[in-house]
Structure formats: structure tokens, C-alpha cells
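Exercise 7. Given the components listed, write out the predicted structure of the assembled complex. Treat all entries as one system.
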Amino acid sequence: MTTEPLFSIPRSSELETVTIRFEGKAMTVPAGVSVAAALLVGGVHDFRSSVVGQAPRAPYCMMGVCFECLVEIDGVPARQSCIVTVQDGMQVRRQLGAASLDDVSSGEES
Amino acid sequence: MSNHSMTVVGGGLVGAAIAYGAARAGMRVRVLDQGDAAFRASRGNFGLVWVQSKGGKLPRYARWSRDAVKLWPALQKELLELTGVDAGLRQSGGFWLGFSDAEMRARFDLLEGVNRTVGDIPFQIMDACELRQYLPGIGRAVVGGSFCPLDGDANPLMLLHGLHAGLRHKGAEVTTGVDVKQIRYDAANGLFDVVASDGQRWKSERLVLAAGLGNAQLAPQVGLHAPVTSTRGQVLITERLKPFLNYPMNKLRQTCEGTVQIGSSSEDVGLDDGTTTEIIERLARRAVATFPALSRARLVRAWGALRPLTPDGFPIYQASVSCPGAYVATSHSGVTLAAAHCFVIGPWTCGLTETPPEFDVFLGDRFSDPHASFSHDH
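Answer.
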């Protein structure tokens, strides 16, 4: 899943970093970048499986439009990783198919 | 300049379906379609294949809609086999939901009246408890609903794509980016001369006007009357979600790809096809009241689109008397009526079949009386 990264961010001694987890594996990534950028720099190519064909998908537009970069972040499904900034301790998982509304009968306070 | 047997002005769902119906009947057809600057009602609609509650004030329209949805499976199958395009027809029945006892009573009266007058449009009224067996997760605000087994939905973009692919298969020519300005009828030779704003022109023996809003300007040039105006509908789109809605509803449906479409609104705003915060908020509130779990769904876009509507909301189908061979067709139900437009109106505009029975109710001339008043709110 994690292979040679296609992207890199120039390293400097004062670069601040945070640690996130992708599929449980710790990754030290630059602070202040988007989750999508952090994962790409970390060598992640396969962000999610598509809804209809279950094909692997990766970010495309990197500006919040195409919805190709969806991942689960801290238990919330189908978040656009290109417009969410990394936070220390974030738990990121691949988005497998469509998000679920879980129990559709819940949601109304009784 | 070229000669074709039939020119269809308008390549949206109405024009494409009629043109395809004519082409499969053997007619040499040319379709003239506008560019992307046009209002493109066929690219913004909701995708219902719907009968229940249609034609409460006009039984012939209820019958026309009923017959149209019964023809739909044949169109779905033909397009799939011919072009490989799946128009996405699902006809497992559909629901309307009521939010008050008064609404439920009015609904029963309407559907009972239509079924009694027209026949073979069965329906079932359900209370909230029974509804939950079919639609788990409806909110407490929903007091009941009506079900019609004839109802369903389709993918309107794939239908349009399939009709255009079918047109190519049948040898029809589709010319896009054409803004038709003028139509002349050469009575001596029985030819229509269609002139575009850029000077291009096409001649044909037959002419079908299916130009949506454009019909208002074009129809009078061939002795027809089609005062088409518009109302705007706004639609909200959620992210793709795992299937949880087993049936389409008239204001909410989940596509087979998982998107939930939320409608419906109707505003008289002229040619403004934008969106407004006020309407989108109302649509979102009603959707969450209907299915509270939708409060957890993310919305990804919204759009407005213009319904090409006649003053009474019913279609116009008319053959010209002064310019034989010219026809006008206008309807805002391009998805529901697609198969009827293909299999019935198509051959009719070729001159191969008689005018369908009791079609005088669809004459555009009904709007010529300056003292009549109309309402399309039904």
C-alpha cells in the first residue's frame, strides 16, 4: 500500500512535523499541510475504493472539487482529505466504497 | 444546405425521444441542438418516472402518463441492446409522503378520483407504521403516504445519452451549437427552411419543434401556438451513501450509485437558473424531517434548472394546419413520457399513424383565448 512517494516536500531543519496514523501505521508528516498532501508525501497511492467499481482511487484536483481523495478521519467517513489540515494524532483510514448513514432509524431525539 | 426528411429542433429529452422514434420508423432525421449556453432542462431534472397524482384535472394526461410508463421497459431494453447505454430504469413503485391528516385526506381524494376516472392507476394509502416497513427511518413528522406500483425512476443523463447514441445508430444527424432563429415554409414545394442565427440553413419536408422554452418563439412561424414559460426547480445532492432508500419518493430519491437527490421546489423567476439559500435551507429541513438520518449526510452540490412549462402545466402536441408537416411538442415530463414520445409521437410526426385519440386536449390553441386563466400549480 505504501510505496515510493511520487511527491516530496523540501526538508529543512526547522520543519515542524506531526504524527498521524494511516491504517494504523504511524507517519511523521509536515505540520500545516492537508491530509492528502501528507499521505502523498508519505507514499500512499491508494486512498479509497470507488463506490460503483471498487477500484483504487487517489487525489485528483487537490482543491475540494473532485471527491476522489475521500478517507475516513477520526471515525468520520468520506472526508475530503485535500481540504483537511493534518493534526497530531489523527487516525486516517481508507474510505471503502460509499459512506454509510449507519442506523437509518436513528437521528431523531425521542 | 442539405435535405433531410425531418428536422427536429431541440435535442433535449423531448426532441431526442421523438427524433429517435421517427428515425427507428425509417425517417431520415436531423436534430438541431443548441449549445451549452442554453437552459438545458434535460440536464437538470430529477429523473422520476412518475404517474401517481398526474392529471387530477385532466384525465387524458393521467392516461397518457400511465401508458407512457408502461412503454418504458421496451425503451430501456431497446436502448441497452442497441447502444449499450443503461438508462437506469427502476419501476418498483414509488411513494408520496404526507405531513398532516389534511394532506392525507386530499391525497386520497386526488388518487381515488384519478383511478376512478382513468382506471388502472392503482394506489395504496398507508399510515406511518405501515410506511416504515417499506421506508425504514422515516421521521415522526411523516404521518402517512401513498404508494403507486407504476412509479419509478431512471437516470435522466444516461437516458439522454442513450437516445443520442440510438439516433447515431439509426443514421440520424445531430448538429449542435445551433441557435434556430427563423423558420420559413415554402408551400409550393412543401419544404421547411430552418435558418440559424449564424446563417446556416437546413431544408426538410417535416419539422418537429421540441425546443422547450424556444417553442414560444418558433411555433408561431409555422402556424402553431406554444406559449412555454418556466418555473425553476432547485435540487440538493448528497455524497454517495450506502443504499438505504428502497423506493423513490416524489421529493427524494437515492440513485443506484448512492447519491441522494433532494427536491422539489417551484418558483416563477423568469430565466434565472441559479440557487438560493432560502430554498436550499427549506429543502434540507424537509429532507431531514423526512429522514432524520440525512442530518449526518454531507451535501456536495446544489443546482437550479428551469422546467419548460405551459400555462396549465400540461403538454402541447399539435400538428400545424397551415403548414402541413410541422408539429410542436412540449412537456416538462421528458423522463416519464420518454417512451411515449419515442413510440407514439415519433411515428405520428412521420405521418405514419393517426393522431392519438382525444388528443385535442393537448392542442396549443387552448391558450389562445385571451379571457381564459390558467394555473400550473397542480
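Discussion: The interface with chain A takes residues 136-137, 139-140, 239-242, 244, 257-258, 291-298, 300 of chain B (CB under 8 Å). The mean pLDDT of chain B is 95.
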